[in-house]
Write a structure and sequence with these properties.
The chain is an alpha/beta fold. It contains 10 helices and 8 strands. Helix 7 links the parallel strand 4 and strand 5. Helix 4 packs parallel to helix 5. The radius of gyration is 18 Å and the shape is globular. It starts with 19 loop residues before the first helix and ends in a 13-residue tail after the last strand.
């Protein structure tokens, strides 16, 4: 019989906090009435797939692990470069040249050996997105191009999987949860349309990016992912689907835009 403490994913109702060490580790979560013991148990049973271990994905992975997500899949086909270290806080100089997915997974294992982490050093595309994301309870996308974002969004809609999207362009950030598979909720494609399926978008290499700002976007993305995981379990479990948070890092200022479901959307219009 599998030990429910070392493998909390065998049963979503298993209490991972029966282990005094785990109880102490997550004590500051548990005393929050918005999370509580039931919320922490749900996090331990949750499987999140993270797309991209870069400026957004790097801090997001760290905070998802710190939150106690029991299973984390990291999908990224890139390798660590020196220019990444200015914002991708999960890596060090010892990781230069290594696949990002594997280096990030190694960090998670060192940080919390009880978590199950799977690196996928592979480019996610419309052809393989469904297979790579199948089995995940939710997805957090922090990649750096629209073509990949749309492929991920379309796969999530087809699979019925909630999606957290976090993006940064210079000093502008956009973070939102999407659930296009639900009849009354938009998908990411409803927000951006079909014009961005090509891979010719701007990049941080050309435009520049501030590490602390991508860290804010990644942390907020992790927060929104926690909301999805806790839906129906605790007070924090309000996914706020379709409520896009626009953050201006120069002012700074934050405002919310309600994204409406597009009846003509190629991905979710029939849902």
């Amino acid at each position: 019989m599998t030990d429910p403490i070392t493998d909390p994913l065998t049963d979503p109702m298993t209490d991972p906090l029966a282990d005094p060490h785990r109880l102490e580790r997550f004590a500051r979560h548990i005393v929050l009435p918005e999370i509580g013991g039931a919320g922490q148990a749900r996090l331990a049973a949750a499987h999140v797939a993270v797309i991209g271990a870069g400026g957004i994905g790097s801090p997001a992975i760290q905070y998802l692990a710190a939150a106690g997500f029991g299973r984390i899949t990291i999908i990224d086909d890139d390798a660590v470069e020196a220019s990444n270290l200015q914002r991708q806080t999960i890596f060090t100089e010892r990781d230069l040249g290594k696949p990002k997915a594997e280096a990030a997974a190694a960090w998670v294992r060192r940080f919390d050996p009880a978590l199950v982490v799977t690196p996928v050093a592979q480019l996610i595309t419309p052809a393989n997105a469904g297979a790579l994301l199948a089995g995940a309870d939710q997805v957090l996308d922090g990649c750096d191009n629209f073509a990949t974002r749309l492929a991920v969004s379309d796969a999530c809609t087809a699979l019925g999987t909630p999606l957290t999207s976090a993006a940064v362009g210079r000093f502008q950030a956009q973070i939102a949860n999407f659930a296009g598979h639900l009849p009354d909720q938009p998908c990411y494609r409803c927000w951006v349309g079909d014009a961005f399926d090509a891979e010719d978008c701007d990049t941080c290499a050309a435009d520049g990016v501030l590490g602390a700002f991508t860290g804010m976007a990644g942390s907020m993305g992790a927060m929104m992912a926690v909301r999805i995981a806790l839906a129906g379990i605790s007070a924090l479990g309000d996914p706020q689907y379709g409520q896009l948070q626009l953050f201006d890092g120069l002012k700074p200022a934050l405002r919310t835009i309600a994204v409406m479901k597009d009846p003509g959307c190629a991905a979710c219009g029939g849902a």
